[in-house]
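Box S1 | Example of a co-folding query
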Amino acid sequence: MTINLQRPVLAGNWKMYHTPAESRKFFSEFLPLLPERLNGTVIFFPPAISFSEALHSVGDRGGVHFGIQNVHWEQQGAYTGETSAIMARDAGAELVLVGHSERRQLFGETDEEILQKVQAILAAGLIPLLCVGETLQEREDGRAVQVVQGQLSAVFHGLASEEAQQLLIAYEPVWAIGTGKTASPRDAEEMHGRIRQWLSERIGSGPAADISILYGGSVKPENAGELLRTSNVDGVLVGGASLDPAGFARICTALS
Ligand code: 13P
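Box S1 (continued) | Returned holo structure for 1,3-dihydroxyacetonephosphate
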């Protein structure tokens, strides 16, 4: 899929929040706060059950895109409770979150499964937004870069370089998710720079520069501007603060 993801990329991961009715209410309050000509691209990842309601609430408003939070790697089958990438595409999704730390930690998703999901997402013509990030223990042990590179490597080794260029990446340190602790702009700059360097070595510096690298972990209206101005931070992936229409509108307009 080719969609023009103009930077900054401002993404909201709603996790398991906002029913269909709450999604409709969210957009009735959020859309009037979004400037007609937005500097950047806004993406929402609503829960699967609220996806259609959210999509239809936005209508054909330019600059707002939708993704789904998780897919199975098979196209269809006897997998009760699961959704496939082709189903997500048919419903109007353009992107899929994959490898989120909550899926890795709470649902035991492995690097092998994450690669299979990325391949299924690309095969369906959708854009994977691959999440990577270290735990507090891994950071304190001085292994943050190694862990993140391992997560990247587990996926990129299974992709052809044209496929690799279609990914988006989110660096989400696990210790910063839902904790109120944000990585400092220096921490973010350092890790984003390492990720860009790693990508350059694998796919060349031109294609690596085109891959947007988002930061996620306690992004709020108060810190979004500073993070978005940090070098190699091409956007943000926001959890809790994306549930509030006024707050997320402030994040979306932080650089406008
Ligand atoms: P918070 O913004 O609530 O810390 O969540 C970040 C996240 O996990 C986005 O995917």
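The pocket of 1,3-dihydroxyacetonephosphate is lined by residues 13, 100, 172, 177-178, 216-219, 237-241 (CB under 6 Å). The chain has twelve helices and eight strands.
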